Structures are given as structure tokens and as C-alpha cells.
Amino acid sequence: MHLEILSSLANFVGASSPLRGGEYYLDPGSGSFLIQLLIAALLGGAFVVRSYWGRILNFFRRLFKKDTRIAQDDE
Amino acid sequence: MTNSQIQRSSFRDPSGFLFTHNGVLLRQVNLSYQDDYDTFIQSGLYNKLLERKMIVPHQEVAQEPKYPESAYKIIQPIYLEFISYPYEWSFSQLKDAALLTLELQGCALEHGMSLKDASAYNIQFHEGRPILIDTLSFESKQEGQPWVAYRQFCQHFLSPLALMANVDVRLSQLLRVFIDGIPLDLVSHLLPTRTWLNFSILAHIHLHAQSQRHFAGRDVRKAATNLSMTNTRVLALIDGLRRGVEKLKWTPVGTEWVDYYDTSHKYLPEALGHKAEVVESFLERVQPNMIWDLGANTGFFSRLGSHRGIPTYAFDIDPGAVELNYLQIKKDEETHLLPLLLDLTNPSSSIGWASEERMSLSERGPVDAIFALALIHHLAIGNNLPFELISKFFSNLGEWLLIEFVPKNDIQVQRMLVSRQDIFGDYTQDSFESSFSVYYKIVHKEVIADSDRTIYFMKRRSNG
Questions:
Q1: B209 FRET partner, CA 20 to 30 A, in B122, B188, B291, B395?
Q2: Model ipTM?
């Protein structure tokens, strides 16, 4: 049952790019391949947000600073 | 050509192999690996790892290859004087090795490369810290390609660490049985249900195990065509694994020997001081190149060796003691001491393919000096081992022996005999001396002040 959910998640998540067939030094395992793609896709968004968190915060800080300055000018 | 020998553990990788020639350890880089090797060097990845002390340094040498038709280059890595295995590491040693592997993969990705395997046997401890020994571990990464070593990372590192942190620290011994890391389905069964609430363990162990079982042998390319593994996603995976590993914790409370020196009253300060002096005078006299301290506990006496710059290996049966020793080594940035797990009554044996791939303890010796301080009573009384067998075993491990005889009236021995029948009529100092004299010459002996214990300097007999 879990695996049907996993498969549909796989379809939902998005862009297309075929898995490269074949010659690997290690047997990566079919199941390991799939779960890795899923986990990485799930984590991907959060990871980007975390990496850019500083910049995101700064963006909002600058945004609020602008607002207060405009408010003061109005007075 | 005739004095070259391929290392017994180096046969799976078509990129190259280790061999010794006239006693020098060398690595042949095969032609099949030429492009990856050149990329490794020219992209700057090798230099970066070297700077951060994450990989063993090597030099390219002009050496006649063992198999010239397949050889691209011969390199000489620095020689590690002692090899240890993941089942001999404490919790934090294994954790640090895991984090190093992930950091290596992160660095590799920055240079367009990727680790093609994530085996714990590719990591060794050098100057107190984990380091990668497999120079040929990196391959060029194509965009969209998943991390091919992910499964191996989970089995070699995440599996034992999760078990040690959530079930029992002794489960790292499963690594002796499962030579390619602990199978995920087994780990999933052993972990408590609450671990299903931990995202990392749920994803990388439980669901990973389910996925392996369900898709075993099937071609998943169709199911995966809608997913791509961009570089960002690979980095996200590595970052997720790192956070998962960091969260795994184990504290050594309650193991038998951890409070040994604190709560135990068997050593008065003067006795301890005198014992240390005797150990120092042994070191002065023998000047050993390497020391194996057997039953080292947290390494108090091992440090008398390592602080003199002598490479010292502190073996103990208690995971807590080894862990505390390692944490202290990290804190002090000690470079000449390595603590390891060892049950002397069942030491690491040679395992792996043809039972030759990983060396037994004895095969990694003999060394110049063995310490057997506060140990004999555990073997002779705790484990019913006759003196002669003990001395024979020690004589195969090292040339010099620094050993402490603990008499029967000692409080530690009395504790052992409290709930047992005293069948140890032979456990006397005279019997000890005569049994050990079969394999050793007793060069010096000294009674420890304020105690009934005697320390002996013994030298192995040449015909023994």
C-alpha cells in the first residue's frame, strides 16, 4: 500500500529526465534508486529555503525598513 | 615482479588496486580510471581534500607496474602503520567517519565529481581523526545522476549508528557478521516503533527497506522517468543525511568501566603515581616504536606512551571507555593515540572473502610493546584462562610486555570471587612467574607502593 503512494508521489513530483542506464561499480539497488529520488525531491525545496534563508530574511528586513521610512515621510 | 603482492582486501574495484612491492605499499591506477583520476587532480578536488586533511596524501612514482597492460600510473600513498575496522570503533568514531564521508561527497559535488562508494572500510583513523584512504573513490558526475553509493552509505553508517543510538551500543558488532553493512530490513525490524516518527530514520531506513524489498530486481526506470536528480537535490539529500546522522546520539553512562578511576578505591594516589613512574621507566628503557595497551580503559596509561610521541593503540572491551577516550582525544587534539574496541577473549578474527579480506588482530602485529596493566585477573579468573595460554597469546602480539600481577587478596579479585567457587588454586605469583617464563624472560619487577600489586618488564624469548 505504501508503495502505491510512493509511486504516485513519484509521478506528482515533476520534471522529466531519464535515469542513465547501467554501468555502475556498485549495485545501487533499484529500490534504493527510487527512494533516493523521492527523498531528495521532498527535501529539495526545504534545502533551498534553508540555504537562502539569510538572503530571504534580508529581503524582508529591507522591505519593512522601506515601509517605515515611507510612513515617517508622511508625517 | 616476484616480490609484489596484491593486498587481500583490494580486488573489487576495476579502477585499480593496492599492492606491496619490496615492502612498500603502492596503488596501481588502471587505464580504465585515467579520465577520472586526471579530473580528480586537475579539478582541484585532490588538493582541497589534502588541505582539509580529508584524504591520505600520495605521490606519483616511477615504478614498474605489476600489470603493465592495464596500468595508467602507480601512486604511493602514505603508509598507515595500523589498520582498524568499523566493528572496532566506538559510537563517535563511526559517527565521525560517517560525517566525513558525507563531507567528502559534498566537496566532490562542488568539483563535478561524486563518490562511487561509501564503504566504512574506505575510512581509517590517522593522527586521531578519520581520513579517506581510497584515492580512487571519485568519479565524474553527470547531471541528473543519483548518488550511486547511497545504499552503501545507509548500510555501512546509518544502520549501525541508528541501532547503537536507539537500541543498544553493542549492536555495532553486527558489522562483523554483515561485511557490507547491516541490511536495512534487519535494522528496520530491530529499531523501536518510535523511530518511525524520526524523519531521517523513516526515510533512509524504514521506507528505504520497504522500497528495496518491493522493487528488488525490477527495472524502475519507467517509474523514475518523472523524477530528476538535479545537483541541488543531491546536495539536499547529503544535507538531509548529515542532519540525520548529527541527531543520533549516545552517551556512555552506566557501562561497567566508565567510572573505574573515579569511584573505584583500589588505587591510592601514591600507588597511581608510582605505577605511572614505573611505566615511564619501562618506556625509557625499551623505547618502543608502537604500543598496544590491552584493557586500556579510558587510556590513562596509554597517554604515557602517546605523549612521548609513540603511536599507541588503546584497546578495551567496554564501548563506554573507548568512547570517552576518543572524545578526550578529540578535545585535546591528540595525534598519537587511537582507542579501539576489543574483547581479548574473542579478538577480531580475519573475515570477508576467503576469510582473508579483513585482518585478525594478530595479523596486524606483532608490535614492540604490549601493556597488560590491571588485566591478568580478568583473563585468568574472570575468564578461566590458564597463565600459560595467556602468556603464549601475548608473546605472539609483541616483543616486550609490561604486565601487572594482581594478587588474589586484591579487592578487585575478591569481588570477582564473591559469587563463585574459588577454583583458582594455581593463581599465585610464583605460578604466574613460572608460566610466563616459558615464553618470556623477566627482566625487571617492582612492587607498587601502597598496594600488593607487582609490575613486570618481560622480554619475549627468541626461540619462543
A1: B122
A2: 0.82
